[in-house]
């Protein structure tokens, strides 16, 4: 049977059978053979055995109990889970931003490069209103778009010019299983995802439309300025 001793100032603590007891009321009778009373002298680093004696023991609360390893594991799992959630949110934000600013090619680039045939690409062009055809029973839309440059300071004016210019490159578009959007109108900007067929038709699987302020609202002023 082993006994461990703990010291705090001149108080004496003995750990016996995994329990901690506080020494009280020392007497000289009934000395247990398996206990030793020891005292720590504050004036020196020596530990002195006083005598074998009988002690009245009082169980005290053990301090400094280590945190169970299970709690540490649960805390670590919680931290890792939180980091994964934040990482997923960040990924969704980044992907959403990239999708909103996804690169697209122009009608000129698509038609001038045969390597694009059969490949899934994203293009942009100006809708020519008079070419729009809609089969409401079969949900099929056909229309033509005109080339617009990638960079423009005035989108409404650029769309207007593209539709009015007979020399601008044009591309026929075919969309299936799509209800005709209200924004599909003359001089709307169409952003399309799909493939260019061998027949020269662009088969779109996704159709996005943007209608800036129509340039006709300011066209009379432009004509007046040119006539001066």
Structure report:
The chain is α+β, with helices and mostly antiparallel strands. The protein has two domains: 57 residues, no CATH class; 112 residues, OB fold (Dihydrolipoamide Acetyltransferase, E2P). It contains four helices and twelve strands. The chain has a five-stranded mixed barrel with strand order 8-9-10-12-11. A hairpin with a 4-residue loop joins strand 11 and strand 12. The longest helix has 32 residues.
* CATH architecture field of the largest domain: Beta Barrel
Nearest-integer average pLDDT: 73
Query: What is the total number of structural domains?
Result: 2
Helix proportion: 25-40%
Largest sheet: number of strands, sense, barrel closure = 5 strands, mixed, barrel
CATH H-level superfamily of the largest domain = Nucleic acid-binding proteins
The share of residues in extended strands comes to 35-45%
H-E order: EEEEEEHEHEEHEEEH
Structural category = alpha+beta
What's the end-to-end separation, in Å?
115 Å
Radius of gyration (CA) equals 43 Å
Placed side by side, the strands forming the largest sheet appear as 8-9-10-12-11
| CATH level 1 name of the largest domain | Mainly Beta
CATH topology of the largest domain: OB fold (Dihydrolipoamide Acetyltransferase, E2P)
